[in-house]
Amino acid sequence: MTFDEAVDFCKNNPEIAAIIILEIDKLKEIVQEQSLEIKRLNDIISKDSTNSSKPPSTDNKFKEVKKPSTKKLKKEEEHKQDTKARI
After folding, report:
1. At what angle do helices 3-12 and 14-45 cross, to 10 degrees?
2. 29 with 20: CB under 8 angstroms?
C-alpha cells in the first residue's frame, strides 16, 4: 500500500483507521515491555562469580571462558623463573 492509498483508506474508513491506530499503540507498549524484560534477563545471565556475589559453583559451565593471553602467560612464567633464580 502506498502512502496515498493509506490516506484514502483513512478518509473512507475513519473508524477502521482509529482501531488500527489503537492496536498499533498497544503493540508498541508490548514491544517496550518485552524489550525491558529481555534486558533484565540478559543482565541476569551475564552475571557470574567474577562480576557478582554469586559463588563459583553457580557459574554456567557452558559459557565460554576467557583464556589468559599468551603475553600474560609469558610474563607469569618469567616471574616464576626469576623467583626460582633468587632462591
Report:
1. 120
2. no
Distance CA 52, CA 19 (A): 47
Q: Which amino acid is at 75?
A: K
CA pair distance 21, 42, nearest whole angstrom:
31
Answer for the pair 32, 24: CB distance below 8 angstroms, yes or no. Answer: no
Tens digits of residue pLDDT in 45-73: 887 777 777 777 777 766 665 666 676 67
**Cα separation, 14 vs 16, whole angstroms:** 6
How is residue 36 written as a grid cell? 525491558
- CA–CA dist 70, 76 (Å, integer): 10
pTM greater than 0.90 (yes/no): no
Rounded to whole angstroms, the Cα distance separating 42 from 47 reads: 9
